[in-house]
Design a protein that fits this description.
eight-stranded antiparallel beta sheet; seven-stranded mixed beta sheet; 10 helices; about 400 residues; 20 strands; alpha+beta
């Protein structure tokens, strides 16, 4: 599980910032929302254009760097209003009883200037520029013949060795590889669901071809959605054209309209988006991984948002959900712990700053949403006129 992220000069994060994910001393939701002393994820809340998405992108960019087939232009992620010459990203994980720390430093042109990996404070990999020293491979010393300017050397080592002699690191990479990025706002139209392991079926059509409709319909039935789906061959109306170029399409059927099947393309944005999310959500609760969700509030009713978060926290074991939302109703003591909520502000030349709600030590009985709206936790936009009226 991810326990900490340290970043500097990444996108809007100009100054050094720590995203702490370890559980604090709160006893609330201990059994459902934490595992091994780590919280099962975080919510980032705040005004528009403050850097909330950048906070979760600081996590997903690690997955891009390690697993994406395409070149990742880290120069584009450099803080535009910083004069510093380097960007820092450091990730700390807890895998069983081991602590793994992975550190990356990039120059302004996107080249890797430093890369280190430690396990329980023991150096496994140490790279400076195009020279690397590895304790994960038979060869110990590498130079520009093996080390690429912009590619993490850890990625090269993994795909060459699969960490067969290092089971803890292999388990860590399974955790990372199983992770999923989901953009709610774009999902229904662009189907922006990124599985970093291509063997994980999270596209809804591929999922239905492989697994059928039972699991999704069981979810609908369990939570009283009064609807089900079918995945059937398309039948064009007489004298008309088919609604899709696919041979089969998804149809919704309401329990009170049993003879009417509604093609998914005619459904609400919320239903379309939920359907796109469910394969990823179901995967995340069954497989230890990170489930990274942007624009979580874009299409869902407040109650549906609460249901998804609660379902994840209760059903997952050692998975983590990192998400952005403007829905203050999620700031409930029955849903999230104070150490699972970060507020986000943007301070002009200082960039994005975050604040963990637990740092204000609210009592478990207090209303976190009201405290946030009262300005106790910061992260509250101010849209008043300049004259104060």
């Amino acid at each position: 599980m991810l326990t900490k992220v340290r970043l500097k000069n990444f996108k809007s994060f100009k100054e050094e910032t720590i995203i702490d994910i370890e559980a604090t001393k709160y006893s609330m939701l201990l059994e459902t929302n934490t595992a091994q002393g780590v919280t099962k994820g975080l919510m980032f809340a705040g005004g528009n254009a403050t850097g909330k998405t950048n906070a979760i992108l600081s996590i997903s960019v690690l997955l891009d760097l390690l697993f994406a087939n395409a070149y990742i232009n880290m120069a584009a992620n450099f803080c535009a209003f910083s004069k510093d010459t380097s960007m820092i990203l450091e990730y700390t994980f807890k895998i069983d009883n081991d602590e793994i720390v992975y550190f990356l430093e990039f120059a302004r042109d996107g080249t890797l200037s430093k890369e280190t990996l430690t396990r329980n404070n023991e150096t496994m990999l140490n790279r400076i520029g195009l020279s690397a020293e590895s304790y994960l491979t038979e060869n110990k010393i590498y130079d520009q013949l093996n080390v690429e300017k912009r590619t993490p050397f850890l990625k090269v080592i993994y795909f060459n060795t699969k960490f067969t002699k290092h089971p803890t690191l292999a388990k860590w990479f399974v955790f990372l590889h199983n992770s999923i990025y989901f953009n709610v706002q774009r999902a229904a139209y662009a189907q922006e669901v990124l599985a970093f392991n291509k063997n994980n079926t999270v596209n809804i059509y591929q999922y239905l071809e492989k697994s059928g409709t039972d699991e999704i319909n069981n979810f609908f039935d369990l939570y009283n959605f009064n609807q089900s789906i079918s995945y059937d061959p398309i039948v064009a109306p007489i004298g008309g054209a088919a609604i899709s170029l696919r041979e089969k399409e998804i149809y919704f059927q309401r329990s009170y309209l049993k003879n009417i099947k509604m093609p998914v393309l005619f459904e609400s944005l919320g239903n379309q988006t939920l359907l796109q999310m469910l394969p990823a959500l179901l995967h995340a609760v069954k497989n230890d991984c990170m489930f990274i969700v942007d624009e979580f509030n874009s299409a869902f009713h407040n109650d549906l948002e609460e249901l998804i978060v609660k379902y994840f926290m209760q059903e997952s074991k050692r998975s983590q959900m990192f998400f952005v939302s403007h829905s203050t109703n999620l700031m409930k003591s029955t849903l999230l712990r104070p150490d699972q909520i970060y507020t986000v502000d943007f301070y002009d030349s200082k960039g994005t700053k975050i604040k963990r709600v637990s740092s204000e030590r609210p009592r478990e009985s207090q209303n976190f949403e009201k405290m946030y709206l009262a300005g106790v936790f910061d992260g509250l936009p101010n849209y008043e006129k300049k004259d104060g009226n």
